[in-house]
Amino acid sequence: MRIRPTRRPWRAASAATIAALAVLATGCSSGDTAADDKPSAAGGGDKPFIALSNGFIGNGWRQTMIAKFEAAATQAQKDGLISKYKVVNAPGENSATEQVAQIKSLLLQKPDALLIDPSSPTALKPVIQQACDAGVKVVVFDSAIDAPCAHVLQNSFVDWATYAAKPLLDGIGGKGNVIVSRGVVGSQPEAEMFDTTKKILGDYPGVKTAATVTGMCDGATAQKAVLGVLSSVPKVDGVIGCGDGYGVAQAFATAGKPVPAVTFETNGRALNYWKDNKIDNGSVAVMSDPGQSVAALWEALELLDGKDVPKQLTFPIVLVEQKDRDAWASVLKPDEYAAWPWTRDLFQQQVEAIKTGGEPVQPPIPTAAG
Fold first, then answer.
1. Please, what is the Cα angle at 299 between 18 and 267, to 5 degrees?
2. Residues 6 or more apart from 364 whose CB is under 8 A from it?
3. Where are the beta strands (DSSP E) in 144-191?
4. Phi/psi class of residue 64: alpha, beta or left (left: φ > 0; alpha: ψ in -120 to 50)?
5. 146 burial type by CB count under 10 A (0-12 exposed, 13-18 middle, 19+ buried)
6. What's the CA gap between 148 and 3, in Å, rounded?
7. Which end of the chain is more exposed for a tag (fewer CB within 10 A), N or C?
């Protein structure tokens, strides 16, 4: 398939946020995978061993994240960049205790670099320090972490909330009634996102917030929450959420009302629903990028090569506007999430942009043609 660059209307934020993506902390599963423990013929024994610890695997976003990492790591092994890799998915519902135990087990295998999608921004601090003290390069992604020795790569919650609200509000002409579907109320990411949403709404005096519900950034939860208020609110022109639009759309369909502009998930199921139902009203899809795991792999290799990489990196969120919807929908499986295809070259370009304050990298998106 061909790829082409696309420009997005907002720049990635440069400041790192300070909490785990609580929205994704649901579901339960376990397991681990590994490349052949023997060094690859191209790599040789002097090439690094990369390990990844994932707090849980029980949803499509996490499964996409792991799949993208494994594909990139397998290719890196074939290219002689690494000798081997291993992925460990902690069992249970985002249990820090279980993840700490699995990281300790990984450290006994003496990896050169450890990538972590953490279950907690604080509980992993001692084991991360243990890894650093052992000379292991630690890259935490998808969350900030209370561990000064680690490098952190994540998306911006401010960007997420901005992309979820602004294009939707512009799409409804900057006037009308909206419902705000909040995420995991009480979590730091949700507080930052809700604060951003309120500030953006303040710039649209023609828009009235008809109701605020707690959708937990989960389609099923949002469906119930929105359905519970539809009988008591006037005509709704949009629902600002955080990747729960498929469930929100189901709520309106159940109530026999037209689907307003919503914030869809970036997976194949939601994008194809949006496409097949010919929803043309300002809807968008936005979520954090599961391709962070691949960017973290390149960061680890840069660190092992002695390159200067900032301790905090903020990479672009995934925004799917209607003009790009069909291209993404054509290449994603139902539970697969849109991910930026971070090559090592693109990673290096993004790091340079962060260092210099230049324009962030615009990763390519797929097109239906070719």
1. 65
2. 3, 4, 5, 6, 341
3. 151-154, 176-182
4. alpha
5. middle
6. 38
7. C
Q: Is the pTM of this model over 0.85?
A: no
Instruction: List for the chain the helix, strand, coil content (%; round to 5).
Output: 40, 20, 45
Neighbours of 4 (CB within 10 A): 12
Residue pLDDT, tens place only, 51-110: 999 988 877 888 999 999 999 999 999 999 999 999 999 876 768 899 999 999 999 999
Q: Is residue 220 within 8 Å of 242, Cβ to Cβ?
A: no
155, 132 contact by CB (below 8 A): no
Paired with 50 in beta bridges are 85, 113
Beta strand 137-141 pairing with 84-89: unpaired
Which tokens go with 131? 């890894």
Cβ–Cβ under 8 Å, residues 268 and 288:
no
DSSP state of 336: P
Rounded CA gap, 178 and 210, in Å? 6
pLDDT, tens digit, 9 for 90 and up, residues 123-149? 999 999 999 999 999 999 998 888 999
Question: Residue 361 corresponds to which amino acid?
Answer: V
- Alpha-carbon distance of 105 to 244, in angstroms, equals 36
Q: Are strands 84-89 and 31-34 parallel, antiparallel or unpaired?
A: antiparallel
DSSP assignment string, 253-279: HHTT----EEEE-SBHHHHHHHHHTT-
Q: Rounded distance, CA 269 to CA 280, Å?
A: 17
